[in-house]
Design brief:
This protein is of the alpha+beta class. The longest helix has 15 residues. The two termini are 13 Å apart.
Length: 50
């Protein structure tokens, strides 16, 4: 199963989610982070265990 992380920039610093998500959950959380942080959030694929 493919896992995904969220990446965004806050105050000029790159942030990355501490956990990985399924594709469906990543899409849901991306909307949450975009609304909360007011910035673009990218979904990036990660290998299991990363």
């Amino acid at each position: 199963m493919q896992s995904y992380r969220l990446v965004w920039t806050k105050d000029g610093e790159r942030k990355e989610s501490a956990v990985s998500f399924s594709e469906c959950a990543a899409e849901t959380y991306r909307g949450f982070y975009q609304a909360r942080e007011g910035t673009t959030v990218e979904i990036i694929p990660v290998k299991p265990g990363e």
